[in-house]
Design brief:
The chain is an alpha+beta fold. Helices cover about 30% and strands about 20% of the residues. The strands form 2 sheets. A 3-stranded mixed β-sheet has the order 1-4-5, with helices on one face. A two-stranded antiparallel sheet has the order 2-3.
Length: about 140
């Protein structure tokens, strides 16, 4: 149906859309199958995060995500704060050209099946929600 590609660049297989349409699509899909709807949201978040990345990463990951050939996970929820991104305790500290992430996540949507994940972590604990880094992690280990 092309739902994975809504609001993502056409050059990767996406299609034009707006956030209201995306919300309606997820809501309508959830009426029939909540599990199917839960596939869409992480894919959208990963797709959006990849838009800020390197062209080689976008070219590699957006087409299979948009086609539904790869599954995305969303790692936001933590044991002490649920899904309140301003209260998360997971930290991301720059170490040379990479970030070292420490912390604990729970309820990672599609975590065991995913090919790619977006991990929410704070780079500045004092900054509240403003210090949250959304980091794409490709390939679970």
């Amino acid at each position: 149906m092309g739902l994975f590609g809504m609001n993502l660049a056409e050059k990767y297989g996406g299609q034009p859309g707006d956030w209201v349409s995306m919300g309606i699509a997820i809501e309508e899909l959830a009426r029939v199958d909540m599990s199917a709807a839960l596939l869409l949201f992480p894919a959208k978040v990963v797709g959006i995060a990849l838009n800020f990345g390197d062209e080689s990463v976008r070219s590699e990951w957006l087409p299979p995500l948009i086609m539904g050939e790869k599954i995305a996970a969303l790692a936001l929820t933590e044991p002490d704060c649920g899904s309140d991104s301003g209260a998360i305790k997971t930290r991301a500290v720059r170490d040379g050209g990479v970030y070292r992430i420490t912390g604990e996540k729970t309820s990672v949507s599609w975590g065991l099946q995913a090919d790619v994940a977006v991990v929410f972590a704070k780079t500045n604990a004092a900054a509240g929600a403003q210090g949250v880094l959304i980091h794409g992690h490709i390939g679970y280990s």
